[in-house]
Amino acid sequence: MGIWNVQDGQASWLVQKILKAVKHLQEAGFTEADMESMEKYNVSRVYMQIRGRMEKVGWRSLVWKNVRAPKWLFILYLAVMGRLATKDRLAKWGIVQIQTCHLCQQENEDHDHLFFKCSYAAEVWTSILKWKGINKNTKNWMEEIQWASKCMKGQNGTTMVYRMALENTVYCIWLERNARIFQLKKTTSSILVKHIIQEIHGRGSRYAKVATRLDDLNNYP
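User: That's the sequence. What structure does it adopt?
Assistant: Structure tokens below.
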């Protein structure tokens, strides 16, 4: 009797799984005829149908096609998505009341201010651009991302170093912001620029294309 109970339970579990699968397939737009016409069940096709079409974002190459440190990329991804715990977001959650930027002590902090309207951050980013040989005015945050996504594509040494510079600069500015809030420590913009360049050289020297380009950038701005 116990054996039959186990088998009955397994059959019931299997029927429930089949019914759930049928429900998901119907929601994805598959008909019984579609399933019968498949010579071989294609998991990828079914998954893509269930997930639906998603528009590719222009900045994906800045985050995914890279040779950079995962921690740089993670912070850049959060910054692009507007998910860093900046003071404007913390204020909405009722965690802080004063929203003044700790880097410049002049304006309220949000993503657009921190990257790179803040006078401290703008000074750092301008110096990094100068080191890269790029002379342009800093734009608001999403305009900077759109410009980089459009003009710094590909896998040549120049574009790869630029993307490393952007990601590490965002990462280091975020760390500097946190150090000033939680550790009461300050680093001058010139020292931070040197630190960013040193980290790019240290990581980029492992890759031939990047190392060749970095040979021409063996200096500080």
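The radius of gyration is 25 Å.
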